[in-house]
């Protein structure tokens, strides 16, 4: 069981943000913006999936997971609120959030189904965000030159995603979720998530007028496919999810704990006064 602390981030997202806030890099800005656009609807789906599934557990495992589930919900609700504020600035830049509407449409048929199906989708997405978090925490220079408050926001979010990466998975296992369906939903979710992220990033770049600039293409290649790129760094841990003996805690580096310990001044635990 993981002890999850709900933290209030001490940054002010009211002032406007620069169009290319990520060190002046159009691709990285568009890519991070795309991910943020998915978070409000996605985080709410994750909250609902874990909460609804947890309610159906027998007494003993439900009580054993109670604190962790409450912490997960609190962290995800905080992420949802922060990124909704951030996304308001993106709308002011003229960017259109197509991903949010697409996700809401795709998730509609899951209403009323066996709670293990949305929970398996949540566990898959939590694995993606944990991989992204590990990549970003391992390469914080990606955010070098970014607005300090936004750099803090993304690293804080990454640290908490790495921290609660096991919750949905553990609830799914406690409910006796099928291994076949866990892997099947993971493959489906990979396809849907990857295509949606790419379409939204391209849409952001198109509306920004920087889609075909050389610096955009170079940055995309470097940060996705380069030696330290997201895809290369994430391929092996992505494949690990398909193993029958997989558990999220097998992929642990300690970077999340170190970042939270080293940056305790940028947040305050909820309820601490």
Protein model, in words:
By secondary structure, the protein is mainly alpha-helical. The protein has one domain. It contains 10 helices and 2 strands; from the N terminus they run E-H-H-H-H-H-H-H-H-H-H-E. It has helices spanning 26-55, 59-92, 98-107, 116-138, 148-163, 167-174, 179-208, 214-225, 230-240, 255-262, and strands spanning 7-9, 267-269. The protein has a two-stranded antiparallel sheet. Helix 2 (59-92) packs antiparallel against helix 6 (167-174) and helix 4 packs across helix 5. It is globular. The protein starts with 6 loop residues before the first strand and ends with a strand. The model has no long low-confidence stretch (mean pLDDT 96).
């Amino acid at each position: 069981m993981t002890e999850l602390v709900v933290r209030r981030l001490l940054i002010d997202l009211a002032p406007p943000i620069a169009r290319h806030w990520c060190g002046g890099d159009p691709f990285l800005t568009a890519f991070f913006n795309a991910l943020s656009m998915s978070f409000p609807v996605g985080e709410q789906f994750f909250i609902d999936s874990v909460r609804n599934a947890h309610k159906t557990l027998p007494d003993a495992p439900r009580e054993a997971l109670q604190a962790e589930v409450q912490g997960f919900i609190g962290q995800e609700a905080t992420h949802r609120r922060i990124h909704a504020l951030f996304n308001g600035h993106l709308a002011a830049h003229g960017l259109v959030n197509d991903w949010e509407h697409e996700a809401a449409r795709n998730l509609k048929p899951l209403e009323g189904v066996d709670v293990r199906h949305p929970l398996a989708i949540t566990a898959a997405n939590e694995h993606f965000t944990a991989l992204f978090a590990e990549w970003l925490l391992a390469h914080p220079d990606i955010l070098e030159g970014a607005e300090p408050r936004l750099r803090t926001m993304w690293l804080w979010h990454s640290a908490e995603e790495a921290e609660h990466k096991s919750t949905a998975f553990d609830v799914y296992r406690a409910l006796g979720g099928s291994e076949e369906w866990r892997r099947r939903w993971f493959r489906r979710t990979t396809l849907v998530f990857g295509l949606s992220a790419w379409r939204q990033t391209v849409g952001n770049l198109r509306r920004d007028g920087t889609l075909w600039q050389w610096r955009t293409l170079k940055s995309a290649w470097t940060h996705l496919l380069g030696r330290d790129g997201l895809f290369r760094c994430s391929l092996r841990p992505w494949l690990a999810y398909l193993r029958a003996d997989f558990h999220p805690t097998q992929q642990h580096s300690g970077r999340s704990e170190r970042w939270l310990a080293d940056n305790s001044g940028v947040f305050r635990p909820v309820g601490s006064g």
